[in-house]
Amino acid sequence: MASSSTWAFRKPSIIPGFGLALGFTLTWLSLIVLIPLAGLVVFTGSLGWAEFIRLALDPRILAALRLSFGAALLAAAINAVFGVLVAWVLVRYEFPGRRLLDAFVDLPFALPTAVAGIALTALYAPNGWIGGLLGPFGLKVAYTPAGVVVALVFIGLPFVVRTVQPVMEEIDRELEEAAASLGATRWRTVRTVILPTLLPPLLTGFGLALARAVGEYGSVIFIAGNIPFVSEIAPLLIVVKLTEFNYPAATAIATLMLLISFALLLFINLVQAWSRRRYGNV
Amino acid sequence: MRNLVMPCTGRLRSLVERLAVAAAFGTVLSVTAFAETTILNVSYDPTRELYKEYDEAFAAYWKEKTGEDVTIEQSHGGSGGQARAVIDGLKADVVTLALEGDIDRIAEAGLIARDWRGRLPDKATPYTSTIVFLVRKGNPKGLHDWGDLVKEGVEVITPNPKTSGGARWNFLAAWDWANAQFAGDEAKAIAYVAELYRHVPVLDTGARGATTTFVQRGIGDVLLAWENEAFLAINELGPDQFDIVVPPTSIKAEPPVALVDANVDEKGTRAVAEAYLEHLYSDDGQRIIARHFYRPANPAAADPEDLARFADVELVSIDDPVFGGWASVQTKFFDDGGIFDQIYRQTN
After folding, report:
1. Best to test chain A binding among B1, B3, B9 (most A CBs inside 10 Å)
2. pLDDT in tens, B136-148
3. Does the structural domain B129-253+312-346 have CATH classification 3.90.180.10?
4. Half-sphere exposure at residue B101, Cβ-oriented, CA atoms within 13 angstroms
5. Lower CB count within 10 Å: N or C terminus of chain B?
6. In whole angstroms, what is the distance from residue B83 CA to residue B185 CA?
7. Nearest-CB residue to B205 (from A125, A221, A227)
């Protein structure tokens, strides 16, 4: 008999309906996720390894991937900082208009991304409200990589706020009071009591914002400027390959993005697992 | 030749097809409701206004001639994307696209007879257009010819030729000027177009997007635009903001039309779809074409007042030896690793 610690032989859950539930889950995941992704890989397979590697090392594709992932990481990092602040204010303070402000957080979810892109471009263009203010200082946002980051910060914000918020609401305030009465400074309380609790949801929110930002096309395309090697994102290159009727190359770039995203998300999950071990499951 | 349809991925492909069809149908507008016959004209971006008027005129003509009601549905979008939608299953009766190459793609997919260019007069182009400069009022930077575009401090707005049909004509018009200027020295012509694209601060994906960047966002000193788009911009926004500058030489942009044989035979609409395209060449059709700022194939039929708006300009055709036809242009300039890709490699 296998010991209970070898999961492969562990008895399935005693709750009835396991077979049906698992069958449903597998079928649904296959239809929605696995089959399209398998199709992507099969399409790419028609390209052959040599061509795939040539594409993977193409300087223009590398530049686009660097921009897409670099801007997405930066935007997710900015959202991680400011998303926590927003969530903190929404959870810890009572003030008139709090619920309204809370609802605003979801707007980037609801707004069609093209609308967001056009609105942001109109604001940040040299003749726009914000762009006009920045212009005299020699700062350009629209039509530069900075514009890409701005768009990605916009669409990523709700992911961080909405994952951190519920956990923050659950934090027991008595822990903070205990820390204070034991002589901890405020900063120490934040560092050793609050942040460790928030770290797992923060990582989840970061991962979600990152994943969303990497594939973003609609809003970025208007504000980026789309100059090769400077402000051209990888999803645009996929569209370019499609207009060349080069389906295999388009799917190859998609596969590359998928691989990098997978590696990043895996890394985030590992960090999360580590933080759980270090600070306990929250 | 790239193999576009792979049997092993049939399921994915049909999914992609359905999505493309759904996306394309999103932009379909119908002229009159509750008619017996319906045909679908899949066209490129700036022809909306032209076909809106022409469709009404044709429906009236067809009713008078045969007593049948006909509804014409329109779909507009980037020329390449529209071609792909038709290949992927959008049931277009006729295609009226920006580039011969895009219709050739549909022909290669077996939906249109290979000799489509010979089936209608004037190489199947009932109207032509050209590329002009739209500049800020008074032309403050003094831009008159293609050489002026690479002067210090000039910013040029043009879309990406990879994603926009109109942008390919822009590129070719500039190339033609450089080719004549440097007496066929290709290295110098490449250096010129590379320099030209160094002056482009924003590379939009489509012609309308580039117009927005120039007109609404106030970016750039000159927009390289379809002649009809430039006229439209001036008409819509008032002539007090912009001027049209017609360079001494430009390209004869020939947006062709074709019957999609496979679809009309399946739907039984061949007669009306054929008449729809032929009627473009009629006096009535040519008049509407000229009114919407396209250069008519048969100027005699058009209103002289409309014709007077077109400046005299030396136009070079894509079939001129400089270019040698669309197929060779596509391979040489715009395919993967072609001259357009090379100039961005050089600039960096």
Report:
1. B9
2. 999 999 999 999 9
3. no
4. 25
5. N
6. 34
7. A221
